[in-house]
Design a protein that fits this description.
Blueprint: E1 3-10, H1 15-19, H2 32-48, E2 52-55, H3 59-72, E3 75-78, H4 95-100, H5 121-138, E4 141-146, H6 148-159, E5 175-182, E6 185-193
Length: 195
Amino acid sequence: MDERRILLVRHPETEANVNGRFVGRGDVPYTVRGERQALLAVDAIADFEPDEVWSSPLRRAHYVARNAATRLGVAHTIDERLSELDFGEAEGLTYEETQQRGIAFEFGAEDVPVAPGGESRRDILIRSGAGVDAASERARRVAIVTHGGVFRSAMVHLLQLPIDAIWSFDIRNAQCAEFRIVDGHAMLERFWQVG
């Protein structure tokens, strides 16, 4: 019997989260609450005792992963596939600003970019699923620090849910999900918020 464990962690709260800005590939600082969440997220990863820690290259995820890996003395792998959804023309804007500029969102279609010039649901599902699979193939216990869109996509990928389920999860900043994978079958064992 082959058993593996994955801990998914969404990055702590950022100023863009509070201000309602679509930030995919850009980077923004933590809020004061986010700074506290970062410390608690490192604790949560340390309690999980992973063999490796993986993350997006973006600072809001990378910072937590690097600190957890350093504390535990394990490898930290940065993987571009764990980066947030590319919002294309909506990057850095609020919903109101996108409406003023005539930028239309497409959350219903699987293969149409969510915003012009960005990625589709299928794009992020395939990309993030490959990143999660690579991490779990290299380590029996792996913690992955990433973003809301990747977190949702990873849950759909791991639980083998239909692609529509990507928008079925409300993933908040500094939320964690622990999965046990037995012979390729993933089960969600815990889902909780830090900070």
